[in-house]
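Example record

One chain of 294 residues, shown exactly as stored in the release files.
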Amino acid sequence: MLEETTNIGNILTFDIEEWYHANYERIDFRIYETIPSRLSINVDRLIEICDRHQIKTTCFIVGTVAKNNPQLVKKLYNAGHEIASHGYQHKLVYEMTPDEFYNDTKKSVDILEDIIGEKILGFRAPSWSVKKDTLLWFYQTLEILGLRYSSSIYPGQTFLYGIPDFPEYIHHPRLENKFSTILEVPVPVTQILGKKIGFSGGFYLRLFPSYAIIRWSKQKNKDGKPVFFYLHPREIDPIERRLPLPFLPRIIQYWGVNQCEKKLQRILDTFTPNFYPMKKLLQTDKNTMAGIKT
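Predicted structure tokens for this chain:
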């Protein structure tokens, strides 16, 4: 466990993807790919918010977005934000074979590295879509591709994703008889009625009041643990296009969008200036075995 990851600061991350990149059933991205979006406008807004608070973030970018909008990637990079991979086509990891996952991730990494001229270190699985039975080849693939860390596991269980017995702390996962060289930064969770629940991003950040999110985050910091917050550009834009979804997915996808930017501002006002890009965690992890909880 990386107890020495202090002064306990926190991490702000953005999943840079299109408004239609949602992994619900019967969503065909190809239907929407030619429809203009407000992604660039929303990314500019996120950069503006970060500049105001003097925060540098980690941006997990979908490969197709980078391919079609290289100037957007350059804009984020030139503003000082870390660039990381969110896969090429925003596919669920557990719906791919190991070879398909390798090809999808490599394609995204190659595109991003060509754009910024710098090694990509991090990866985030779309929709936290790593299952227990994919862990071995998932981390082995990231190692083969030369990545250094992952932010891909929800250490709880929902009807969509999660590994309930996965460790909640930042660590190198043990795979068979050895530890992975990949540092995993799992989704922060808290206990509510005996159940592990996320609180720091996406639907959870839009659902819970800001005072509760701030309280839970401060408790994590008090315990020596950094918290990463995460948002998608569409979540700060009430007028962005919306997918035609059934009731429950629609609630998950769009609940609280109208107030999301204000909530983000309150969180940043509380914790600024102690934010840093996720790759900084590697500085306290100089040895593969450093900080491992056994």
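Notes: The first helix runs from residue 39 to 53.
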